[in-house]
Amino acid sequence: MTKQHERLIVVSNRLPFSFRRDDSGKWRAEASGGGLVTALLPVLRHRGGIWIGWPGTSEDVPDISPELPVAGEDTGFTLQAVSLTAEEVRNFYEGFSNEVIWPLFHDMQLLCNFDPAYWRTYREVNRKFARAAHKASRAGDFIWVHDYHLMNVALELRRLGTKARIGFFLHIPFPPPDIYLKLPWRMALIDALLQFDLVGFQTAHDRRNFLQCVRALVKDAEIDGRGQIVQASVGGREVRIGNFPISIDYNAFMRQAASPEVAARAKELHRMLPNRNVILGIDRLDYTKGIPLRLQAFQDLLTRYPDLRERVSLIQVVVPSREDIAQYRDLKTEIEQLVGRINGTFVQPGGWVPVWYVYRSLSRVDLIAYYRAADIGLITPLKDGMNLVAKEYCACSIEEDCTLILSEFAGAAMQLGRSALLVNPYDIEGVADAIHRAFHMDKAERQARMRRMRRSIREYDVFWWVDSFLRAAITKDLRAFPLPENHVADESADHALLF
Question: What angle do CA 212, 216, 221 make, to 5 degrees?
């Protein structure tokens, strides 16, 4: 794919390891999960490379640099830590990243806190990451920067004189101009993103939103092409802009779903919930996931379709997140009150419990057992860059006798929308109707739909995603990028499935 001496330098907000003190006070490294780490490890091992990120500790604690070679010794690449002060964590991560960019890019601008101090710290921290990447890189390397925390890194690298090529991938949605233009630093951020050599998004819709913002704000921009990757000429520089739908390690999930341990746990779940369909929702605690509306839809289902009472149970797993933030504590309280109200209204003493609420992180085995046991996957975020839970659920559904209900506002809808049941998560009755339809769908249709989705996810897995992004950075033919089956490539029709 590239010359052997060219290394990959990955820059992300967090390192692929978390560092915690044990009882003796020593630092212990724990490998992070997730598709990004799984996909990049073999690439880095093969080519040699460096992963730069924050280790999750403050500058106020002892330096963990001596632990990094130990943590990375079995991976084949080098770890480099970027240290942050407690104030930088507050203003850069909790502030600008998660009180400005996260809500704004998820179409929830009323939740934004546009504190100017946040922007100043965001630039300073991005400068720190850039200095680390510049020091580690050489001309033949490819620097791959990840996500909304680090959108200013290329700008700072250019100022430092970095010769390596620089790519960026945004893991969350990119908003349309009417929302993006509310950002006080809209011009500075667009200029910073255009300093990358390749800018990647999850869907054609996100790419189109970005290009519309470029056209609105950058008067001398010239944009050429209509395929998966287009080329923009800005200020004498050429920037490639494409959509690369991220995915999962399909084979790893499928193999573990077929293991005896997972099969036994899935069977136990069905034993506890006999003679009923299991509906599954799994989400991190976040206001973008639409959990309260989902619970209201389930309540509406039981109210309008009494024939489904005692024939369905909803398992709603919520993974704790940002519990120190008042908004998230309030969301948790709202979810718990809704669960209590539904169960209080419909529960049968000594028997059926409509909603099983699980508030904790799951082990990988438990997660996959829930996936395999579920007859209906209910995944209804209000907005999501991709939503890998939908793909994980399909990969683990090895019997293929189940149904995926998916929000049309999840990026995964572009790929899975012709076989999943697409819903508007704000439409409470519409979601309830979709659950009713899924329950009564005949087996042949369920299996045909699931089989198509699993085939697409298997073919376009996370390794395909890494390879397609890296090839896009070096190819001469921008038309040579097939999209996953059912994706809509033409930006003039990229929401044809939805509207």
Answer: 85
Range of the domain at 234: 8-243
The DSSP-derived string for 5-30 is TPPEEEEEEE-SEEEEE-TTS-EEEE
For the chain, which ranges sit under pLDDT 70? 1-5, 19, 21-25, 27-35, 38, 58-67, 69-76, 479-499
| Per annotation, catalytic residue among 134, 171, 205, 487 | 171
Same-domain status, 182 and 113: yes
Looking at the structure of the chain, the number of domains it has is 2
What is the DSSP-derived secondary structure letter of residue 420? S
- Residue 134 a catalytic site member: no
From the list 141, 197, 283, 384, the catalytic residue is 384
How far apart are the C-alpha atoms of 358 and 316, rounded to whole Å? 6
Is 178 a residue of the active site? no
**CATH number of the domain enclosing 386:** 3.40.50.2000
* Global pTM value: 0.92
Q: What does the pLDDT look like over 220-266, one tens digit per residue?
A: 899 987 778 899 999 889 999 999 999 999 999 999 999 999 999 99
Spatial separation of the C-alpha atoms in residues 359 and 336, rounded to whole Å: 10
Q: Residues 37, 15: contact at Cβ < 8 Å?
A: no
Q: Hey, CA dihedral for 136, 141, 147, 153, is it positive or negative?
A: positive
**Tokens representing residue 64 in the block:** 């963990």
